[in-house]
Amino acid sequence: MHTSQVRHPEHQQLHALGSSPLPYRGRFAPSPSGPLHFGSLVAALASYLDAKANHGQWLVRMEDIDTPRVVPGAADAILTTLDAYGLHWDGQVVYQSQRHDLYQDVLDSLVKEQNVYACICTRKHIKARGGYYDNHCRAKNHHFDGNALRLKQRFPIFEFHDGLQGQVHIPNDIAREDYIVKRRDGLFAYQLVVVVDDHQQEITHIVRGADLLEPTARQLSLFKQLNYTAPHFTHVPLAVATPGFKLSKQNHAPAIDNSKPLPALVAALEFLGFTLPQAHFDDVETLLKWAISHYDVTRLPNNKEIQVVQKSTERYEFTPL
Ligand SMILES: [Zn+2]
Hints:
Bound molecules: zinc ion
Number of strands: 14
Order of helices and strands: HEHEHEHEHEEEHEHEHEEEHHEE
Structural class: alpha/beta
Helix content: 25-40%
Largest sheet: 4 strands, mixed
Mean pLDDT: 91
Number of helices: 10
Oligomer: single chain
CATH topology of the largest domain: Rossmann fold
Number of domains: 2
Distance between the termini: 38 Å
C-alpha cells in the first residue's frame, strides 16, 4: 500500500552532489494523543498536497516523545485513518520514542560546547518576572541533575519568511528567550527533537498549522546553532473550535470517520480554499488526484485561524478569523 519502503537512491545521489538542491521531502508529524480529528486532517492534507504537487515525498513521523500525553493505540489508529483517507506515506514511519540516542548525542554536543545550562526557575517564578524567561539562570552554574536544561540563545530570529503568511515578525522576548531543550522530568523538549528529526530525515518543506508560527522562530535559531540547513516553512490556517482554541479532544472534536472518508476530505479541501466541481467523486484516490492537480499554494487562505462548526457528518461551516 505504501509507495516505498526504502530510501530512494536518486535522493541519495542528489544529496551527494552537494550543489543540487535537495529533492522535496515533506512530512506530517502528529502526536499520538488521540485519534485524528478534522483539524489534524486539514494539516495532514495540506502537507500531503504540497508534497505531491511538487512531486515530492511525504513522510509520517510520530511525535511520541512526550510520553505522558501518548495514548496507547493512538499511533496505529492515526496510520489506519491516513490510509483510509488515501494519504499514503513514503518510507517507514519514524517514532521519536525510538530515537533517544540521537537526541542525546545532539544534546551532548550542545553541552560540550557550553551552549546549555540548568535552570531551577518554576513556572510561577517566570510568570512573576513577566511571563517570558529572562535568562535568569544563565550564569548561575546550577547542577544539571533534576533540572530543566536551557539553550543559550545565540541566534535569535526576529523575522522569517513563510510560504503563505509572508514576512513573520517575532516579539523580542520570544526571540531572545533561552528555551528549554530538556525538561525537568528528563524528557527531551519538542523544540530540540523536531529540529533534529527534520534535519536527520532531510525534510526540505514543512507545511503545518499557524499555531506553530512562533515556535518556528525557535526552531530556525536551533537550525543555525547546529549548523543545519533549515527547511522552507508554510503555515496554513489552524482549525479552531472558538477563537484561540484549536480543535482538540478537550473541546470534543470528534474522530473522523474511517468508513466514510469522502465527506470530511471534501470539507478539508473546502477549508483549504478549494472550489470543488459539481461532479461526484467515487473515492478518495480520485478526489486527491484532482486536488493535487489543482493545488496552488498561493491560493490557500492565509488567515491564522478558521473556525469550524460541524453541522452533521456531511456539513461543515467555516468562519475565517
Ligand atoms: Zn532559571
